[in-house]
């Protein structure tokens, strides 16, 4: 049983906020923040300790009113830790995404330019921290880059925002909480779902405050969250297994996914320009300045605190 006092729980909540804020924008991942703040191993152990069998036993406990089973499973999964950390993550995501929604609505080129810089700097920092010593790892790098590069163009224009797509996006995005170095928001950009989910979460948050259209606005959020739960119960275990058994190949593949994703912000800006009279030539100064700012931010933080790890 956890023995944290109130101050220690506050620290865990704040660490959750840092994780949520990191994963709300493409760049440094929530998993990286968990690693930096010293809770990564506890976090991974907690989320991978829950299986479908445990959920079935908990549901059966509710059905039979056997609360001892529920309490036992809650303690086994470090439930207090996950609840407090999750509250911090959710608080930060809702807060930061309100700002991101405003920026994407009013300063899309600057925002995506900043994201481009964040991703580019993360790629450089990450490649410096991995080794490629085998042919299999080279093939993994090429495969990861091509898959991400192709998906960054195709998904943004062809996948749409149906509930099955949103569910899969939730499954994929939650992996970023498991992987230091891979941002959940970056994965959503690759899938063409980032801007949509930012808007959906903003609308849901507004509905919570006003009470209007709450059911309608909650559908994509619940669908995405359901995918995240399934991702924790399935994909996170696969990723953990891959890192434990094929670490070099897995890391090279994952970092190459980030590199290929540099196409995604460019595609998104192209979609914005298609609906305006602006051209790439006219927006290049603001795009370049924002990209340099994002690039510098990550490199400075990494130099000072080693924030990009994998």
From TrEMBL:
Keywords: Membrane, Transmembrane, Transmembrane helix. InterPro entries: VCA0040-like (IPR007163). Coiled coil: none annotated. The keyword Transmembrane helix applies. The chain crosses the membrane at residues 81-101, 107-126, 138-155, 217-239, 251-274, 280-301. This is Putative transmembrane protein. It comes from Candidatus Nanohalobium constans.
